[in-house]
Amino acid sequence: MYELRDKDFIFIFTGPNGAGRKTVAQMSGETLGMKQVISYTTRAPRSAEFNGQDYHFVSRDVFTEAERNNEFIEVIEIDGNRYGVKERDVAQMIEKHGAIYLVLNRFGAEALKKLYGNKAVRIFIYADLKTIVKREEDRGDTPELIQRYTSHYDEEMAYKDQCEHIFENLDLAHTVFDLTKTLDDNYLHRNLVDKD
Ligand SMILES: Nc1ncnc2c1ncn2[C@@H]1O[C@H](COP(=O)(O)OP(=O)(O)OP(=O)(O)O)[C@@H](O)[C@H]1O
Ligand SMILES: Nc1nc2c(ncn2[C@@H]2O[C@H](COP(=O)(O)O)[C@@H](O)[C@H]2O)c(=O)[nH]1
Question: What role does it play (predicted)?
């Protein structure tokens, strides 16, 4: 496994679907120069999703072959779809960028924490269920998809107190400011947040 340097960090955004994990991660990531490691999945892309940007969308056969070759750090099945993060992607991205992030459910967060120890920082993003359902409706998720997402709400929320940092994401600008400052002050020391 790739040996991590002092300046290397793996930030793992976790929490319930629709809480805003990707949104806040991308916004803070841009300010702080962090890059995302994209997972592989066997699920079909949704209308606004792109291969290589949201996920690497692959067939079950391709996924299974990579799994057989021990390419994945962790593999999980959620609602009949398989997801995984490749060790090589993590190593290459860290070597190039130093600070990287992933958006994973609680099992992925736990697996990476076990592997990378204090270099893996779990950031729990959440909102109340009513707010989340409204966001999912607003972005056009089908009732079936919303039902599937909300069925995992309680189990994802139960992971909150095990994470290193917890943010309730109601006002987006506040969340991104607080998050960026927390990561900058505690880990990255880019001193970017108060300069504007
Ligand atoms: N603070 C906020 N206020 C209002 N809308 C928000 C806020 N944060 C995110 N959103 C919107 O909520 C929706 C879900 O956000 P996002 O995709 O980032 O969530 P997620 O936790 O990554 O979940 P999923 O994996 O289901 O997409 C998006 O349409 C996003 O623009
Ligand atoms: N443990 C992992 N969880 C992952 C991975 N890639 C995505 N996810 C999380 O799965 C759910 C469902 O995702 P969706 O895009 O199909 O709605 C969500 O919480 C993702 O963050 C992974 O490689 N490992």
Answer: Essential for recycling GMP and indirectly, cGMP.
Strands (E), 61-98: 72-78, 81-86
Residue 37 tokens, joined:
């490691």
Digit-coded pLDDT (tens) for 82-106: 999 999 999 999 999 999 999 999 9
The sign of the torsion formed by the CA atoms of 180, 181, 182, 183 equals positive
Q: Which ligand is nearest the CA of 153, by number?
A: 2
- Nearest-CA neighbor of 28 among 179, 141, 191? 179
Q: What is the pLDDT of residues 21-76, one digit of tens each?
A: 999 999 999 999 999 999 999 999 998 899 999 999 999 999 999 999 999 999 99
CB 147 within 8 A of CB 190: no
CA distance 132 to 142: 14
Domain spans of the chain, in order of start: 9-37+88-185
The span from the CA of 24 to the CA of 176, in Å, is 6
CA of 136 to the centre of ligand 1 (A): 8
| Class of the CATH-defined domain 9-37+88-185 | alpha beta
Supply 133's token pair.
Answer: 């359902």
Q: What is the ipTM of this complex?
A: 0.98
76 lines ligand 2 (CB under 6 A): yes
